[in-house]
From TrEMBL:
CC annotations in GO: mitochondrion
InterPro entries noted in UniProt: ClpP/crotonase-like_dom_sf, Enoyl-CoA_hyd/isom_CS, Enoyl-CoA_hydra/iso, Enoyl-CoA_hydra_C
Protein name per the record: AU RNA binding methylglutaconyl-CoA hydratase
UniProt entry keywords in alphabetical sequence: Acetylation, Lyase, Mitochondrion, Transit peptide
Chief location: mitochondrion
Taxonomic source organism: Prolemur simus
MF-aspect GO terms: enoyl-CoA hydratase activity; methylglutaconyl-CoA hydratase activity; mRNA 3'-UTR binding
Location in the cell: Mitochondrion
A biological process term (GO) from this entry: fatty acid beta-oxidation
CDD domains named among the record's database cross-references: crotonase-like
Membership in a protein family: Belongs to the enoyl-CoA hydratase/isomerase family.
Amino acid sequence: MAAAVALGPGASGRLQAGVARLVAVCSARLGPGSRPPGSLAGRQVGPAVWAQGWAPAARGPGPRRGYSSEVKAEDELRVRHLEEENRGIVVLGINRAYGKNSFSKNLIKMLSKAVDALKSDKKVRTVIIRSEVPGIFCAGADLKERAKMNSSEVGPFVSKVRAVINDIANLPVPTIAAIDGLALGGGLELALACDIRVAASSAKMGLVETKLAIIPGGGGTQRLPRAIGVSLAKELIFSARVLDGQEAKAVGLISHVLEQNQEGDAAYRKALDLAREFLPQGPVAMRVAKLAINQGMEVDLVTGLAIEEACYAQTIPTKDRLEGLLAFKEKRPPRYKGE
């Protein structure tokens, strides 16, 4: 519950400003159909399926994957809605082996389309971003395609990449980056936009843009310092240093590091385990918890507490809260519906 806070001079005004801002933020970020406190159950939007070609999820080894040098444009991003005990988990799998999963115009377009659909799909509970290509998470920009652009095209394209990565960061559900290989430049920026990052010990990651006489343009100069601290982030960006999984864990860049397995998907399997831990929790609570944390980290403590209070208020009128209390009383697992 939100605790009472003794307010000093001027704090009341900051609280009111924080609450007002939070109401606007909630409406914008909790997804289409969301409403201010008192009416959280917005209209339901049916799930969208954007790509096919996956077998249903199961525990144990995943489906065998083929890696042709010729991949159809529509297969560069595979979107899988898991089923059965994993229902609610969505996996975005990048599949550009011939381009080391680099950001092409087509891949960014597909990511944008997928993320737009995820925003409004109330059945989605957690999103995992992974690679379908062994040894590569994402190598950043497609430099071969970039070399063909004239100067007037580069800026708008980088802006689009930044916008898509921002949209991923602002998804209202938990997001996990499973880094089973190389994550350089924009690839690491994509991972930084996720709430949680897990990596194999053999993975390599770094913001290496200064080697090309540019700077990180997909949020790296802002998210890396917030993740590991300003001084160390500057050191890594200035040096274009590449870290392995153990080094990344030591500096706080990732949450978990795993020894790579024979299938090459150790990080993905850990991401699945984490996502399964999230599934039993109340969907509305998960959304507003993420919102409270994200918004609170950008403001002073007094305003942050006001944001927490406003977010808590979002959960009070929900059917899920009453179901949680009833399930506790009856000593049974709750059956949450996101209402």
